[in-house]
Sequence to fold (298 residues):
Amino acid sequence: MIKSNSEKREKIDWLFKQLFKFTGFATIALLGGIFLMLIYNSISFFANVSPIDFFTGSQWDPGSATSKYSIIPLLASTGLVAIGSMLIAVPLGIFTAAFLSELAPKKLQTFLKPVIEMLAAIPSVAIGFLGIVLVGPGIAKIFGIENGLNALNGSVLLAVMALPTIITISEDAINAVPKSHREASFALGANKWETMFQVTLPAALPGLIAAVLLGLGRALGETMTVLMATGNASVLPEGFLDSIRTITATIAIEMGEVPYQTTHYYALFAIAAVLFMITLLINFLGEYFANRLRKFHA
Fold:
């Protein structure tokens, strides 16, 4: 009877092991399939358009008579709004995580954590709508400009969307710092603030970097919010008050209207492939620093 139960348990364990293995390989295969599809269609694009023009030009204008296909304005716009969002979200997110982990009373923690996590549940279209009716007019009024749909508007909204990721991962990284580090700092005469800024946060640095990179990946991949709130001008931006169009917004706007298997159609796959490789690299870097944190505290 005991042997029968043991064999049954082993069979169930083997079955679940194979199931998890299959789902893992299926995920990798799906990711590889998407990448190969992007590369295959990108090759069709580069058969008609020079890679030099694509990576060094200054115009994205597929509808013109000369059909300009340069990713530079879209890449610059994407980078501008992503960096702008990180300039807002990183200090706010890390300091909020440090406050929750080191200073906040338990009751306040139990209230703030669900509220922060609920930010991730707000639909991006709702945040984009707030950008149109609230943030954009506010920016226009503050800076005395006609239109508030610009890179600054997109940066503010993407910062809000990236905050839950940055705060949650940063808090986990700070909590993972051994208590002995803090106790040693207090024993040497440091106060709570000195301990937090000179001991705890430096010790949690790999995890904080991972949080920033994953938050950046979240900002780079967002579509609806930047489509609604940044003005959709596919020109090289000169500053945060210029209207921009990101790579994701370009794909969303143009893919539904472009004729099938045309140069314009393949161009959208080419810019998608570039964005895919950028976000994949950022996520790999984030995972690398997260693994360094795990090894450090193992």
